[in-house]
């Protein structure tokens, strides 16, 4: 009998169905010469400290460091897990061959190897390695099974990672808890979580301690186009004032006009981090939510394996592309033009050197009913996939240089000549050329009057981390990298793996080291105190943790031994324990009053930009001024009529509310508006002409209500928002929680 072992019951069911093992037994499926069983994730784990030495159970500084000579694995102490393990062991005892069908990655390999070792199985082991759960992929995988020994290095890397986390996590957590914990506060310290927390704390402190510095900008308005001083900002007001007075006395002259055609490439295919970043920014999903949704899509067979760190496809996938596109019938309006010609093959998409265990996340071609949140994630995966096979977007970039006296000014504009891949993401029906910041037609040598502007501004602090920006920072070990190509090169030294980063962030939330403030992630008092207390810089170093990740990948590639990595970790833990035990400082940390202070919150609020000096939202060349009864555009009375009255509907509107309106599209719900003599609560928005309109407060929305937009659908409740049941047929009504 051939015994297959998968990582989840749901995956085992899919494999069993393809193999013809259709008889359901207790803990496995059977038939056609196969038994297909499963784990529930980790059935086994590393032994606890007390399993090595009974006195290690006590949290005592004298017991540290705990450095076992050899690490042992045991079956988890849970009745359900023990029962399933015994079922698996019984099947192994009868097996002629075992086929490891665990998730095709480091963690999946580790989970199943531990079970095989604990069951003391000595027979032949084969490895199933697949990137999707479609029937075709499973059949292909079973037709090309490989020897398990080909994946030994993958197992050694997973085992080394687990040991490294045990060594540092258990020793450092006990060390800092006993030395610095108060009120029964456990101070959890980890190989990845501590440098991640340190990044958050350092950013928070940078913002709190930020001292804004004034600077000045010289601009001028010519033919309704804003030109900026070519050499940038001024750090001394008097330097800029001299030039401002000088240019005011001369006409503006166009010196040169340069047009340069350019190419914009389609966004890269998704790796897991890229998908999590996009979904956090676009939909507000946490990294953990996105990972769970992507895993469900994988198990529903509609996308490929999601826990990946590459944005490329191998060349052997290219022949299958047309077949996948043809099966995406729900997107036929986008795929039909591709299917009528040869599919484009670009090295920006297909690159064998950039693909290791798995390729980028793409659709399989299968389609099924999905829940609202699943549909959102699936839709963007599909559109990214389709877009990379479209033509590149062609643009024309225009740079215009002008001068007044001998002072040069510059402005730029862009015109989209051919949309190419942009069509995939365009919600409008028109495919005509799109213009972005298109400039008037200037002629070299033309002259005319202009309006110089000399503006005082202030430097701004860095932004607090969101989950999206934190994931990117973990990917690059804290280095600020915006370029996709450079980011790809740095992934080997990132903090954690794509599949574990979401869990690290969730762990920091659970331990109350960090908290959410809308989209921002802020450290709590306990989190800040812990990082302040840890004097050992290596323990907080994102770069060191990135180096460890590189070493683990080198173990996977067979470049270094697991033994060398583990010895290095032991040396660091030994030195850390000696250092902290010798510290004389006795800081005591507890989770009491674990909130950022009101004083600090007030300080951050005071940093909001004022309305005066803001760009006019209606005309791109104007800026806002304060009048006697309203804020208004400095172009008012010429070619712009934008105003923000101090009062609306007999209610005074504060500057902060108008700031929110400009930043987020609406004020909050406000009480006291008067309409037809009645008092109304509601919020203010702009209409299409940028005039204020009052939107009365909506009645409470509940699942099952009739959709207020299309009047035919019913309201559904998702994880983060209410939406209309007719979303597939075009109704985009959605209200975030």
From TrEMBL:
InterPro entries (UniProt xref): Topo_IA, Topo_IA_2, Topo_IA_cen, Topo_IA_cen_sub1, Topo_IA_cen_sub2, Topo_IA_cen_sub3, Topo_IA_core_domain, Topo_IA_DNA-bd_dom
Any GO MF annotation of the entry: DNA binding
Parts forming coiled coils: none
Entry EC no(s): 5.6.2.1
Protein name in the entry: DNA topoisomerase
Residue ranges of domain Topo IA-type catalytic in the record: 151-577
UniProt-listed CDD domains: TOP1Ac, TOPRIM_TopoIA_TopoIII
GO terms (BP aspect): DNA recombination; DNA repair; DNA topological change
Taxonomic placement: Bacteria, Pseudomonadati, Bacteroidota, Flavobacteriia, Flavobacteriales
Enzyme class, UniProt record, top EC level: isomerase
Catalyzed chemical reaction(s): ATP-independent breakage of single-stranded DNA, followed by passage and rejoining
Keyword field: DNA-binding, Isomerase, Metal-binding, Topoisomerase
Residue stretches making up the Toprim domain: 1-134
Superkingdom to which the source organism belongs: Bacteria
GO cellular component: cytoplasmic replication fork
Family affiliation: Belongs to the type IA topoisomerase family.
């Amino acid at each position: 009998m051939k015994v297959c072992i998968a990582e989840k019951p749901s995956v085992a069911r899919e494999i069993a169905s393809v193999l013809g093992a259709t008889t359901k037994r207790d803990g496995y499926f059977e038939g056609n010469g196969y038994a297909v069983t499963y784990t529930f994730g980790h059935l086994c784990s590393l032994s606890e400290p007390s399993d090595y030495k009974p006195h290690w159970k006590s949290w005592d500084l004298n017991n540290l460091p705990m450095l076992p000579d050899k690490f042992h694995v045991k079956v988890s102490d849970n009745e359900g897990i023990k029962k399933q393990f015994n079922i698996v062991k019984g099947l192994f005892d009868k097996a002629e061959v075992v086929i490891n069908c665990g998730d095709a990655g480091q963690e999946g390999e580790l989970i199943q190897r531990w079970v095989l070792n604990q069951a003391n199985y000595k027979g032949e082991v084969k490895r199933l390695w697949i990137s999707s759960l479609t029937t075709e992929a499973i059949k292909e995988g079973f037709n090309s099974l490989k020897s398990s020994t080909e994946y030994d290095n993958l197992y050694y890397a997973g085992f080394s990672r687990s040991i490294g986390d045990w060594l540092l996590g258990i020793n450092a957590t006990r060390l800092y808890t006993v030395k610095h914990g108060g009120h029964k506060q456990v101070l959890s310290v980890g190989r990845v979580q501590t440098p991640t927390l340190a990044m958050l704390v350092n950013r928070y402190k940078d913002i709190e301690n930020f001292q804004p510095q004034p600077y000045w900008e010289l601009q001028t308005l010519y033919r309704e186009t804003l030109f900026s001083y070519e050499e940038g900002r001024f750090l001394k007001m008097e330097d800029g004032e001299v030039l401002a007075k000088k240019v005011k006395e001369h006409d503006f002259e166009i010196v040169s006009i340069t047009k340069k055609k350019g190419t914009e490439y389609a966004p890269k295919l998704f790796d897991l981090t890229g998908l999590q970043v996009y979904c956090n920014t676009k939909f507000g999903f946490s990294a953990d939510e996105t990972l769970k949704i992507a895993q469900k899509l994988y198990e529903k067979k509609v996308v490929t394996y999601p826990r990946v760190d590459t944005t490329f496809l191998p060349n052997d996938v290219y022949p299958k592309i047309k077949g996948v596109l043809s099966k995406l019938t729900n997107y036929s309006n986008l795929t039909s033009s591709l299917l009528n010609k040869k599919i484009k093959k670009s090295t920006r998409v297909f690159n064998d050197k950039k693909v290791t265990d798995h390729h980028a996340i793409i659709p399989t071609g299968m389609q099924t009913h999905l829940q609202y949140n699943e549909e959102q994630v699936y839709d963007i995966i599909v559109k990214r996939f389709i877009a990379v096979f479209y033509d590149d977007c062609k643009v024309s970039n225009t740079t215009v240089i002008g001068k007044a006296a001998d002072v040069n000014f510059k402005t730029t504009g862009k015109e989209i000549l051919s949309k190419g891949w942009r069509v995939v993401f365009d919600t409008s029906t028109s495919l005509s050329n799109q213009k972005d910041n298109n400039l008037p037609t200037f002629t070299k040598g033309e002259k005319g009057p202009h309006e110089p502007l000399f503006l005082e501004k202030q430097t701004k602090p860095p932004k607090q981390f969101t989950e999206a920006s934190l994931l990117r920072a973990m990917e690059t070990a804290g280095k600020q990298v915006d370029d996709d190509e450079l980011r790809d090169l740095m992934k080997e030294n990132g903090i954690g793996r794509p599949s574990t980063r979401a869990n690290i962030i969730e762990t920091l939330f659970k331990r109350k080291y960090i908290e959410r403030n809308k989209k921002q992630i802020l450290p709590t008092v306990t989190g800040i105190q812990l990082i302040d207390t840890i004097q050992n810089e290596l323990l907080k170093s994102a770069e060191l943790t990135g180096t460890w990740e590189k070493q683990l990948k080198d173990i996977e590639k067979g470049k270094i031994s697991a033994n060398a990595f583990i010895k290095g970790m032991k040396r660091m833990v030994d030195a850390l324990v000696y250092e902290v035990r010798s510290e004389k400082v006795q800081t005591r940390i507890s989770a009491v009053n674990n909130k950022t202070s009101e004083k600090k919150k007030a300080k951050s609020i005071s940093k909001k930009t004022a309305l005066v000096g803001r760009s006019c939202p209606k005309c791109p060349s104007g800026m806002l001024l304060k009048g006697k009864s309203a804020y208004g555009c400095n172009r008012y009375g010429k070619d712009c009529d934008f105003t923000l009255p101090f009062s609306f509907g007999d209610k005074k509107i504060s500057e902060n509310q108008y700031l929110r309106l400009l930043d987020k599209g609406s004020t909050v719900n406000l009480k006291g508006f008067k309409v037809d003599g009645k008092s109304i609560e509601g919020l203010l928005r702009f209409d299409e002409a940028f005039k204020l309109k009052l939107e009365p407060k909506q009645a409470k929305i509940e699942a099952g209500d009739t959709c207020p937009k299309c009047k035919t659908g019913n309201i559904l409740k998702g994880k983060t928002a209410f939406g209309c049941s007719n979303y597939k047929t075009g109704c985009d009504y959605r209200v975030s929680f």
